[in-house]
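FOLDING PROBLEM:
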Amino acid sequence: MNKVIFLGTSAGIPNLKRNLPALAIIFNTTNEFWLFDCGEGTQRQIGQTNLKLSKLTNIFISHLHGDHIFGLPGLLATMGLLGIKKDINIFGPMGLENYLKSSLDYSYTHIPYSYHIYSIDKAKFLTTNLLWENGDTAVYCAILNHNIDSFGYTIIKKNIKRNILVDKLLSLGIPPGPIYKKFKEDKIVNLEDGRILAASDFIKETKTTKKMCYCGDTMFSPNAVSLSKGADLLIHEATFSSNSKGKAAQSYHSTVEDAIKVASLAKVKKLALTHISSRYNASENESDMYYEFRENINKNDPEIIIAEDFMEIKI
């Protein structure tokens, strides 16, 4: 994982500043990217970035409210029209497959590639559990606290760097050259002078782990804390400012205070607030959330960011 790009940060209604929910996470080694939620207009947002749809491999849908899924049929259709033949994995709540099938059937849309839908059974994710794993990358999932089934996702990527101990090789009279490559690639290295060396004696492995958590629509949830524990980046909805707790509770959404509580309990390094109600985008109403943000930014650990469309955050 290298960075995330916010493609849409509004809640429910798009406006001139914010499109509907969508987030891309980019893997720097392959330029592959994954998509989290796909609100209406996501394909247009992608078109304004350097992302290439041919590099999209996985889509994760948090829940089936329209502002999180209405862009998905169009995105899949566009990939087909562009001649992209690469298969794609789509993860989401039960019912997502029926929604997609109906949308594509009724619109007579042909998808010239395979898409594989993995329906998430909430009974298996009442607590944090492994959803999918491929090589050094794993995705964990848990049910959150919304008025329909809504899932949070955590991506954990392990990186192993293998560095040659140059000083140790130089001490044995082995200067830099093509032979050094063999110490990274082979288990045993045969030198021209007849010496046989174990490559592992001259390699130092450094293991690092990157963790990113995405929590879409939800009230405060202990599962969000569990999912994001120790994360480098937590992306959490904050639909309302904290003086609108009643409205947040009625709609099963979080306030800024709720999101900060999750981040603090989980001890994450960085918190990005997203899914911002359109009421805070009109200049006369921005003060509620933005003043609260400014008051909290110097009082809290972790670092707090209010996400904007096309904002990029390194992980």
